[in-house]
Specification:
Blueprint (H helix, E strand, L loop, with lengths): L4 E5 L6 H11 L3 E3 L3 E2 L14 E2 L2 H9 L3 E8 L2 E6 H9 L3 E5 L2 H10 L4 E7 L2 H11 L4 H15 L7 E4 L3 H16 L2
Parallel strand pairs: 1-7, 1-8, 2-7, 3-4, 8-9
Antiparallel strand pairs: 3-6, 5-6
The structure holds guanosine-5'-monophosphate (5GP).
Length: 187
């Protein structure tokens, strides 16, 4: 049986990782969906915990079998994807999968699971993104401008998501995020 899916995406600098960690702590029904990939495991990474690690030919066979909801070549020759079987594994445990993914991947999953998924876009006002990048003090003017352009581009996708959460204050944003997720799961 299919359950529900929570999909979260954000432009870089929006503070997504912290927010998502807080969300998973607050909503015990959620479990992170583990992605598949073809890169080598880094020291300390475990198969089936951090990723499902595959050889490229195995990954290609899975693509042919239609095993992925979405997949992308993120770096040259390195494939990453979300397995349908991962959602089923989590539903079978009586939990709901949470997918943290880039904007493109998020919208692809939403297309496949229109009725039982909630897509959430985490954003921050452009001035706040700019301020956060400046505070890091590591960006040259040129680099900063480039990152801001990228953030602006990513922000332009916000309206395609079911819900938007503005992360200006982390506590307020966490409360909002937990609320929209609980409303959806509680239906
Ligand atoms: P890393 O190799 O550093 O763990 O991840 C590299 C990139 O792969 C990240 O930017 C992440 O967004 C992307 N990625 C991880 N899992 C998936 C997935 O299931 N699907 C897609 N499309 N990208 C993914």
């Amino acid at each position: 049986m299919q359950g529900k899916i929570i999909i979260i995406a954000a432009p870089s600098g929006a503070g997504k990782t912290t927010l998502v960690k807080r969300l998973v702590k607050a909503c015990t029904q959620l479990e992170f969906a583990i992605s598949a990939c073809t890169r080598e495991p880094r020291p300390g990474e475990e198969n089936g915990k951090d990723y499902y690690f595959y050889k490229v030919d195995e990954f290609n066979k899975l693509i042919d079998k239609g095993a992925f909801v979405e997949w992308e070549m993120v770096y040259t020759g390195k494939y990453y994807g979300t397995l349908k079987s991962e959602f089923q594994r989590i539903w079978d445990e009586g939990k709901q999968p949470l997918v943290e993914i880039d904007v493109k991947g998020a919208l692809n999953i939403k297309k496949e699971y229109q009725d039982n998924s909630l897509s959430i876009f985490i954003e921050a006002p452009l001035e706040v993104l700019q301020e956060r990048l400046k505070m890091r003090g590591t960006e040259s003017d040129e680099h900063l401008a480039e990152r801001l352009e990228k953030a602006k581009f990513e922000l332009s996708f916000a309206t395609k998501f079911d819900k938007r959460v503005v992360n200006e204050n982390i506590d307020t944003a966490t409360a909002q995020l937990v609320q929209v997720v609980e409303d959806f799961l509680g239906e």
